[in-house]
Write a structure and sequence with these properties.
The protein has 266 residues and is α/β, with parallel strands linked by helices. The protein has helices at residues 11-22, 58-61, 76-86, 103-111, 132-138, 155-167, 186-197, 208-219, 222-235, 243-248, 254-260; strands at residues 2-5, 27-32, 45-48, 66-69, 90-95, 115-121, 140-143, 149-150, 174-178, 184-185, 202-205. It folds into two domains: 2-121, NAD(P)-binding Rossmann-like Domain (Rossmann fold, 3-Layer(aba) Sandwich); 125-152 and 181-239 and 252-265, UDP-galactose 4-epimerase, domain 1. A seven-stranded parallel sheet has the order 3-2-1-4-5-6-9, sandwiched between helices. Strands 7-11 form a two-stranded parallel sheet.
């Protein structure tokens, strides 16, 4: 069985390749727009191609049985049509439900008539690095909604689930909602971040406008969208699922992620 990982030099795609290799997959093909820059384990076949340029994909899709589809909206309809024409039997996509901008990916995959598995992921633990500059320079995090709560997930957990599904059976037609193992408030996340770093960090409640101004240099036009999303989680906190642990045997807790990425905040 040949497995193709698209977006293989992206954060999650790279991890999918690594988990497939560690799990003993024998025919891994990695799609990259710059094969010369890759450094995958021995035995991984690297092919040139780019999801945003469908004309580069037919050769990469040839002989593939299952595919991890990275979240690229612009060309998804063309990409899944090419996958069907190439005879790919299953697409495992990273997308999102109807409340997200990523739902069109799931819809396009379903419309392709190729067997599918959807991975719906919420906020990444890695998004905590938007606080890194504040933490490094002030020891504070300035946000408006201390009680907003969600269950952030480590990108590595998403990749581990993708590899498990790609190599396993019984996943066709299923949608997996992926979160971290527990829901944490924003103030609670700051507290846990400080404990893991061995620092006394402070959550400072500020206005919506000030929070947007703080995040704009990092997030650009998405800062307003992000802050308003936090507001929605005050009355509607995200409920954690156990899906990651059920599928892979374990799930990364927030403190574990912070410990592994502590240098980002120092």
């Amino acid at each position: 069985m040949r497995i193709l990982v698209t977006g293989a030099t992206g954060n999650i795609g790279r991890m999918v390749v690594e988990h497939l290799h560690e799990a003993g997959a024998e025919n891994i093909r990695a799609l990259s727009n710059h094969p010369e820059r890759t450094d995958f384990p021995d035995g991984v076949e690297v092919v040139k191609g780019y999801l945003k340029k469908p004309s580069t994909l037919p050769a990469a899709f040839e002989g593939v049985d299952r595919m991890y589809l990275a979240p690229v909206l612009d060309t998804v309809t063309e990409v899944v049509a090419l996958a069907r024409e190439a005879g790919i039997s299953q697409i495992v996509d990273l997308s999102g439900d109807e409340t997200t901008d990523w739902q069109p990916i799931a819809k396009a995959v379903e419309a392709s008539d190729v067997d599918w598995t959807h991975l719906y992921a919420g906020e990444f633990m890695e998004n905590t690095t938007i606080w890194a500059e504040q933490v490094r320079t002030t020891g504070e995090v300035r946000e408006p909604y201390p009680a907003a709560a969600n269950a952030p997930i480590a990108m590595d957990d998403i990749a581990r689930v993708a590899a498990t599904v790609l190599m396993g059976e019984g996943h066709i037609g299923k949608t997996y909602e992926l979160t971290g193992p527990e829901s944490i408030t924003r103030a609670g996340r700051v507290l846990r971040l400080g404990e893991a770093l061995g620092r006394d960090l402070k959550f400072v409640q500020v206005s919506r406008e000030e929070a947007i101004a703080v995040l704009a240099p990092i997030m650009g036009e998405f800062a307003e969208w992000y802050v308003d999303g936090l507001a929605a989680m005050v009355d509607h906190p995200q409920v954690a699922t156990a899906t990651v642990a059920e599928l892979t045997g374990r799930a990364t807790i927030f403190e574990e992620w912070v410990t592994a990425n502590a240098d980002e905040f120092r």
